[in-house]
Write a structure and sequence with these properties.
This protein is an alpha+beta fold. It has helices at 10-15, 109-120, 126-133, 137-157, 212-220, 224-229, 239-248, 258-281, 290-293, 295-299, 307-319, 325-341, 345-362, 365-376, 378-387, 392-407, 414-430, and strands at residues 20-27, 33-39, 44-45, 52-53, 56-64, 73-83, 93-95, 164-171, 176-179, 185-188, 191-197, 203-208, 232-235, 253-256. It has three domains: 10-105, no CATH class; 157-257 and 391-430, Ribonuclease H-like superfamily/Ribonuclease H (Nucleotidyltransferase, domain 5), CATH 3.30.420.10; 258-387. The chain is elongated, with a radius of gyration of 31 Å. Bound molecules: zinc ion.
């Protein structure tokens, strides 16, 4: 059997907004329910002198946005202005505020928490969540920004040490221009740089751009002790990243990410294939050209191919590569993969000698340029071979980031976008 409680009425219990009492619930002509509430207190402490008072100076009604409850609910707060009981206090009156509706707030704290929670753990569109809770896109973004700032402040205060750091660039969008308020055209930087803890895959930060300044700006905000504990940094073969790491992470060894090196080798192979196609047909590759039809097969690692795929690859190279240029570039690419797969520096050096031999036999500008990159980054390649530090997990984070971008249908503001990424990531790490 249910027992009616004397102190709390049913509407207040149902409404369940901490610190508030429901005074009345009415329905307007449009069907919207209006809930009139007041703070469940009988006295308040003056912020000027701290003396408690129970004298109400006046009441005003403030509209407050709250969580919808089976349809829209309009919340009206009958807000008191208290009169200070201390005669000598300069603060003669003061308005009340609560944990659920702090000063200047237009939304209840529980609504803010819902908005942030709805967008932190999941890849959802901001406007969809806004529609669900009856608030506008900028309102949702403001909550996310505030939550992100609070989290960043806490993180800044005491960041966790990271021994292996990943720095990876990703394309945020295509280059766009937009007009600012003064009417001037501004270029939107299409690249972002992500910082990851390689041990956990956690995204530590996202910054605009992919130059040395972007990376330095982020590293500079880390405490000195944190920077001194970073032992290994996995980066793309980018001189800008390397320079930033050298100046701000003095104890770290730079490991170049092997995926990016293999990608450079694949790019060289693709350039050769295109050049050969132009030389032979004086046009771009098309479906009837074997090398074009099997262009992805060329890029795959030979050790990952089935016997049938290997036969097909041999047939392609035999029929569509008369001067054996594609074959030469393919051999260079495969040899680079063997260099990177080596388990010791001695093995890697031996494989590198073979690689250099292949490049000199190939004698093509595309593969010669690749060799130059390998020479430039050899020290960082050796660190990779010793540590196997890779940005594979950063890449995974970038996939999530792209999904956030897609769900957001393109964020104009980087701050908004960064904030989504960091909150999503924080929610994932907490789970
Ligand atoms: Zn006072």
């Amino acid at each position: 059997m249910f027992k009616a409680t004397a102190d709390v009425d049913p509407a207040t219990t149902l409404f369940n907004l901490p610190g508030y009492r429901v005074l009345s619930v009415t329905r307007d002509a449009g069907g919207t329910r209006q809930v009139l509430i007041e703070a469940g207190v009988v006295e308040a402490a003056c912020p000027g002198c701290g003396v408690l008072t129970s004298r109400v100076h006046q009441r005003t009604v403030q509209r407050v946005r709250d969580v919808p409850f089976d349809g829209p609910v309009e919340v009206l707060w009958s807000k008191r202005r208290w009169r200070c009981a201390e005669r000598l206090c300069p603060r003669t009156t003061f308005t009340e505020h609560t944990e659920q509706v702090p000063p200047r707030a237009r939304l209840t704290t529980r609504l803010k928490e819902r908005l942030v929670a709805a967008l932190s753990g999941e890849v959802r569109a901001v406007d969809r969540v806004g529609a669900e809770y009856g608030v506008t896109w900028p309102t949702v973004m403001r909550q996310l920004t505030a939550a992100h700032a609070a989290r960043a402040a806490a993180e800044q205060f005491r960041p966790r040490p990271v021994a292996s750091l990943g720095i990876d660039e990703h394309r945020f969008r295509t280059v766009r221009w937009f007009r600012d308020e003064a009417g001037a055209w501004k270029r939107i930087e299409p690249w972002m740089t992500t910082f990851t803890d390689l041990a956990t895959g956690q995204v530590l930060g996202v910054v605009d751009g992919r130059d040395s300044a972007a990376v330095k700006t982020w590293l500079r905000t880390r405490p000195r002790w944190w920077r001194h504990r970073v032992r290994t940094v996995a980066i793309d073969p980018s001189a800008a990243f390397r320079s930033a790491v050298r100046s701000w992470l003095p104890k770290a060894r730079v490991a170049v990410d092997h995926f990016h090196l293999v990608k450079l080798a694949n790019d060289a192979l693709t350039k050769v294939r295109r050049r050969v196609s132009w030389d032979r047909h004086e046009r771009r590759g098309r479906g009837t050209d074997l090398a074009w039809a099997h262009r992805l097969l060329l890029l795959r690692g030979y050790d990952t191919l089935s016997n049938r795929a290997r036969e097909r690859l041999n047939a392609v190279l035999a029929q569509d590569d008369p001067a054996q240029e594609i074959s030469a570039a393919w051999g260079v690419k495969e040899q680079l993969r063997r260099v990177l797969a080596a388990s010791s520096i001695a093995d890697a050096s031996a494989e590198r000698a073979t690689f250099n031999q292949y490049v000199s036999w190939a004698a093509m500008p595309e593969t010669t340029r690749l060799k130059k990159t390998i020479d430039t980054w050899w020290a960082a390649i050796k660190v990779f071979i010793q540590t196997r530090a890779t940005n594979a997990r950063t890449e995974a984070a970038n996939v999530t980031i792209k999904n956030i971008k897609r769900a957001g249908r393109g964020y104009r503001s980087h701050t908004n976008y960064q904030c989504r990424i960091m909150l999503y990531n924080a929610a994932r790490s907490a789970a």
